[in-house]
Amino acid sequence: MFGGVIGQEVVKACTGKFHPLHQWFYFDSVESLPKAEKLTVDELAPEGSRYDAQIACFGKTLQREMETRKVFLVGAGALGCEFLKNFALMGLACSSDGSVTVTDDDVIEKSNLSRQFLFRDWNIGHAKSTCATAAAKAINSNLNALPLQNRVSPDTEDVFDDGFWQGLDVVVNALDNVNARLYVDSRCVYFGKPLLESGTLGTKCNTQMVIPHVTENYGASRDPPEKSAPMCTLHSFPHNIDHCLTWARSEFEGLFEKSPGEANAYLAKPAEYAEAARRAGDASARENLEKVAECLLKERCATYEECVAWARVRFQEAFHDKIAQLTFTFPEDAVTSTGSPFWSAPKRFPKVVDFSSSDGAHLALTRALANLKAEVHGVERPEWAADDAKLAAAVDAVEVPVFEPKAGVKIETDPKATEAASSAGGMDDEAVIEDLLLKLEAVRGGFSAEYRLGAVTFEKDDDSNFHMDAIAGLSNMRARNYAIPEVDKLKAKFIAGRIIPAIATTTAMATGLVCLELYKVFNGAPIEAYRNTFANLALPLFAMAEPIAPKKFEFKDMSWTLWDRWVLKGDFTVKELLDWFEAKGLAAYSVSCGQSLIYNTIFPKHKERMDKKVSELVQTVAKLEIPEAKKHFDIVVACEDDEGEDVDVPLVSIEFR
Description:
Elements: H1 2-15, H2 41-44, H3 52-58, H4 60-67, E1 70-74, H5 78-90, E2 99-103, H6 128-139, E3 145-148, H7 162-166, E4 170-173, H8 178-191, E5 195-201, E6 204-210, H9 231-235, H10 241-268, H11 270-280, H12 283-298, H13 304-329, H14 360-377, H15 388-396, H16 429-444, H17 467-481, H18 489-496, H19 504-523, E7 532-536, E8 541-545, E9 553-555, E10 558-560, E11 565-569, H20 574-582, E12 587-593, E13 596-600, H21 614-620, E14 632-640, E15 646-647, E16 651-655
Parallel strand pairs: 1-2, 1-4, 2-3, 4-5, 11-16
Antiparallel strand pairs: 5-6, 6-7, 7-8, 9-10, 12-13, 12-14, 14-15, 14-16
Helix pairs in contact: 1-19, 3-4, 5-6, 5-19, 10-11, 10-12, 10-17, 11-12, 11-16, 12-16, 13-14, 14-17, 17-18
């Protein structure tokens, strides 16, 4: 923890950036220590091990407990590496009885090496969890770590099953997105496991302790959603480079990943794809088919020269023709319905970009687009593709259609719109779908059964794959259209690659703070001993507070929180379930499983279900599949009291096996 703080102060002294500490910084974590009466002379006496310094503070008993704990570390990136290093040094799970399961489905990229210090150059391309655990074992060979490459989500509940969660002592999150955090939080609440949460953003960090029956859970409070630029701003009215880069990333994915992926879905199962498109018969199905047709009919390339021609035409359409249409539809002196200038701030009036093979940026973008198009269609890239003069000659030989603006073209200007405006008003989607399917069927016979396009997945860290060349080029050409300052490839990578700013100092401080809380978990500390932290090393600011207790519900002589589950043992019928609640003074009027209603008093037919087993109904009505190894299922019961007021009761689990 102090390493992170002091490291940032050194950086401040060397760079003059951010505000230094104002003379003094005092920090203690006395709350992490066991109760004084437990710390006898014998308890603190050294034993000649690598843990003697820690034993001198916390005692041998806690040391032995830590060595036998079963820990689940979710994530092996910047935070995960620091946690594993700390676990190895603390002796956590460093015995045959203890274990730390580490899972991360990501592989190591070059950009990770600046802050994920368990990785080296030769680890690039390998699984993070495997490399991180190997490095941690080099620090302490007794660390009993199991690396996995599974994403923790509903899709992997066969891997991280009930038995796995029930066997854990503590869960430590080292994640980089809210959805994954919320899922892990829900599992910890369900199984009653402590969760130690943390996150960083540049010089800022936060930590949150989630302790069963003691604190509120992570999902109890939410940050406001991040604001995103309106669709019309990205498509027609950008006014900063972020808008241009977001548009460029979207264009890249549409051209080289989503459209080829859609074409591959058609090629894999053409009959099923066609049937599904006909059955849908809507604009979405038509648009997907148009993507397939573009890849396999209109824009299919068999030679590199054709890829160059495609790239040249694409440039013309994006940076000349569409801009010409936009300024034709909304001239510079256009006004709104209220008489105000249409092109008022923050809108910028655009100008077309005329292609020139003598402009290095134009040629570089054309090369990147042509190379990616060649990759999609499996076209070999000739040696002359890297020669500027020969590429320029090939580009200049391309005949580009002369564009004439059209009247009546609708361009979306509503910031609240979520879809691009279509100029094809009144289009018969079903007729277009049928026409496209016939055309595709006619050319499909010319492909082998194994023929597939090479869908390109964006990878920001490979400088030889032309991905960032394409995105930086697309965004800068769009910036030229709107007189927005251009950016270099590094800045483009930062924004388009959606890189979350992370530095080693903040990561070290955050993980240090969490590990201080780990001692409290193992000590069974009360809520007033725990600390949630928000810190900003740039200011610097350190704000610590006790966690909030969970919301408590009370009814008669009963009380419960989100952490509670009512477990009913036995294969209950619906009537027996209702009687169980009635005995508690509650009238259960609705029973549901997932999205399905198992029983509700307002439906007369549901009375026929009174003598049926709830376990049978969840499988026949809710279509719930219960694995043989699973002994229970969960239902939600809605209840009211004697006065007809709703009572929020805990989740109900029925152990029917």
